[in-house]
């Protein structure tokens, strides 16, 4: 199974589609793929840079890795990634605690590259509740008067890292909150659905094709 730009997986409710975005610079000096590589190195995140996608209505680039034991268990049980948000919403019910598949992906972080800091921050904030998040903006934006009192002040409130980039490379403007192990944070219906989407993409982009029973 190979991920290609434009692939869409529906969430089972007819909205909130998972749309893999075309790679593009969006006003930034590098492609999104190259930009993500630079950002991950600067942030020290581990895992694979997945294709840019529109998730929860925001355009982001996830960085994640498989959880080997959980992945092996799901392969043995024939438990494929589940993308239906209605079904996943029941997984956080107390009575379902021992009846749902384990989270088989660890999301190291979410990148939100954009030419405007407000667009990037809007994209990053929903994910900052359960994983590390960072926005990436052009250097010409970060060098403007008022950037500290506007963008950095708001980003600090949400624990979101801020990076700026130009042709010479990437620079950290603000360090964000670090999640040592996002799997240890309290799971919600949203975070668990995002984890399943990321798991699906990890399998599509890097893992050998599993045998689902």
Helix content: 25-40%
Radius of gyration: 17 Å
Largest sheet: 9 strands, mixed
Q: How many domains comprise the coordinates?
A: 1
Q: What is the count of β-strands? A: 9
Q: Could you list the spans in which at least 5 consecutive residues all have pLDDT below 50? A: 1-17
Structural class call reads alpha+beta
The end-to-end span amounts to: 17 Å
Please describe the topology of this protein.
Blueprint: E1 8-9, E2 18-20, H1 32-43, E3 48-49, E4 53-55, E5 58-66, H2 68-77, H3 85-88, E6 105-113, H4 117-124, E7 132-138, H5 139-142, H6 147-158, E8 161-166, E9 169-174, H7 189-205
Polypeptide structure, described:
With 213 residues, the protein is α+β, with helices and mostly antiparallel strands. It has one domain (8-205). The chain has helices spanning 32-43, 68-77, 85-88, 117-124, 139-142, 147-158, 189-205, and strands at 8-9, 18-20, 48-49, 53-55, 58-66, 105-113, 132-138, 161-166, 169-174. The longest helix is centred in the last third of the chain and has 17 residues, at 189-205. Mean pLDDT is 84; it is low at 1-17.
